[in-house]
Write a structure and sequence with these properties.
The chain has about 400 residues and is α/β, with parallel strands linked by helices. It has a domain of about 260 residues: Alpha-Beta Barrel (TIM Barrel), CATH 3.20.20. About 30% of the residues lie in helices and about 10% in strands. Strands 1, 2, 3, 4, 5, 6, 7, 8 and 9 form a 9-stranded parallel sheet that branches. It is globular. It starts with 15 loop residues before the first helix and ends in a 5-residue tail after the last helix. Bound molecules: the ligand O=c1nc2n(C[C@H](O)[C@H](O)[C@H](O)CO)c3cc(O)ccc3cc-2c(=O)[nH]1, 5'-deoxyadenosine (5AD), methionine (MET) and iron/sulfur cluster. The ligand O=c1nc2n(C[C@H](O)[C@H](O)[C@H](O)CO)c3cc(O)ccc3cc-2c(=O)[nH]1 binds next to strand 1, strand 2, strand 3, strand 6 and strand 8. The site of 5'-deoxyadenosine has 15 residues, from loops. This is 7,8-didemethyl-8-hydroxy-5-deazariboflavin synthase. Its EC number is 4.3.1.32. Pfam families: Radical_SAM. Keywords: 4Fe-4S, Iron, Iron-sulfur, Lyase, Metal-binding, S-adenosyl-L-methionine.
């Protein structure tokens, strides 16, 4: 049983036989991708305050030292991003700061916001005004918190990390698998196109890796909402010296992800943390958000490869490199999808995951996001150019 899953109301049946089958998967069992995608983004680290203290993470600052970006700072980052041809504002930051962060709460209140989610909503609106589509990963969220921001995001995400109880998540306030799974399930209930993933090398074993991937699959089968699964190796830094997974481990776990997940879910590896070149043949078809102008604030020691390097990786793999939006095409309404779209639309009509027909015509993108995609301004044109696949020409 997954620790805390029932406590958070998540009912999952992970079949032992499916775990065994996945444990037997090797890179030879999966196919290389037809194309390799990436998104151009800017990273907006809204606050470094965080209620958790994951031992692998250098991102968070303790109370008294944590930062909070002003909306002017958010606007400035987004403006630079739009100017550099990005389509995505990636809002990822500390999990809902608890009451130890008195000064963060006081500042939010002085600016007229009740919570970090209220503030995130305003920040997403700024991103949209500047011509970027928000993708927010604020960590664990209740359904009410998700509802506060869902309609101003093109897609959202949270890493499951692992279904295992690991020492890296120890301490009085800690990430719990049950709560992560509930966040992923909440997104499904609210029809939010969603990114999740596993963090590899934080103390989980092979069986737990298989179980984590199958848990994601099971939630996706229920809601059809997962767009991509990130297979992220833990990276060494000042707080984490317990090592990073070997190439052999990454190859095997990436192949397991490809084998565990249905075709419509992309398998992503971050090219700044993982040896992407050596992993493509294990079923990777996405390189995630890559920023031409900002750091990866979670892993600032690992800089983004330039576009030319991504092209080299794709060339080596014999797959074309294609820029994508932060929301995958299968979640767009049919009139916004391109003529060449041949995937499994997430509108209930494809039946790839056996969704019931009464769910047909589900709207994944909100009227706000649809308006941004259709707008007759420079940003709208940039989004549509990426959709048509002509952004790299
Ligand atoms: O730059 C990063 N982008 C991260 N991203 C962004 C991701 O690369 C893109 O934003 C998505 O592919 C959407 O385009 C995440 C997104 C999530 O929803 C969940 C986790 C991550 C993790 C990272 C990360 O560690 N670094
Ligand atoms: C956004 C995501 O960043 C990941 N994250 C946090 N710290 C590290 C690290 N040292 N190495 C790799 N990934 C990390 C977590 O998986 C988090 O969910
Ligand atoms: C900066 S880490 C990413 C967001 C969130 N704190 C989480 O761990 O899920
Ligand atoms: S990984 Fe996310 S939740 Fe964990 S300490 Fe870092 S910011 Fe907080």
């Amino acid at each position: 049983m997954i620790p805390g899953a029932s406590e958070y109301g998540v009912a999952l049946e992970i079949d032992d036989a499916a775990v065994e089958r996945l444990l037997a998967v090797t890179p030879e069992d999966v196919a290389a991708p037809r194309e390799l995608t990436f998104a151009r983004n800017v990273f907006v680290p809204l606050t470094t305050a965080c209620r958790y203290t994951c031992t692998y993470c250098t991102y968070f600052d303790p109370p008294g030292e944590a930062s909070l970006l002003s909306l002017e700072e958010v606007r400035e980052i987004c403006e630079r991003g739009a100017d550099a041809g990005c389509t995505e504002a990636l809002f990822t930051f500390g999990d809902d700061p608890d009451d130890r962060y008195a000064e963060i709460h006081a500042q939010l209140e002085a600016w007229g916001y009740d919570s970090i989610h209220d503030y995130l909503r305003a920040a997403c609106e700024v991103a949209l005004e500047e011509g970027l589509l928000p993708h927010s990963n604020p960590g664990d969220q209740t359904i009410e918190q998700l509802e506060t921001v869902a309609d101003v995001n093109a897609s959202m995400g949270v890493m499951l990390e692992t279904t295992a109880e690991v020492g890296a998540h120890a301490g009085p306030r800690r990430k719990e698998p049950g709560q992560r799974l509930r966040t992923i399930e909440n997104a499904g209930k609210l029809d939010v196109a969603f990114t999740t993933g596993i963090l590899v090398g934080i103390g989980e074993d092979w069986r737990e890796r298989a179980e984590s991937l199958l848990a994601i699959r099971e939630l996706h089968e229920r809601y059809d909402h997962v767009q991509e699964v990130i297979v992220q190796p833990v990276a060494e830094n000042e707080r984490w010296s317990d090592g990073s997974p070997t190439l052999e481990t990454m190859r095997r776990v990436t192949a397991m992800a490809r084998a565990a997940l249905p075709e419509e879910i992309s398998v992503q590896v971050p090219p700044n943390l993982a040896p992407a070149r050596e992993l493509i043949d294990c079923g990777v078809d996405d390189l995630g958000g890559v920023s031409p102008i900002t750091d990866d604030h979670i892993n600032p020691d690992y800089s983004w490869p330039a576009l030319r390097e991504l092209e080299g990786i794709a060339d080596d793999a014999g797959a074309p490199l294609c820029e994508r939006l932060p929301v995958y095409e299968r979640f767009l309404p049919s009139d916004l999808r391109t003529d060449g779209f041949d995937g499994a639309a997430a509108d209930g009509t494809a039946g790839a995951t056996g969704r019931r027909s009464e769910d047909a015509d589900r709207e994944w993108v909100s009227p706000t996001i649809r308006a941004a995609l259709e707008a007759a301004d420079a940003a709208g044109e940039r989004y549509r150019r990426v959709l048509r696949g002509t952004a790299l020409e």
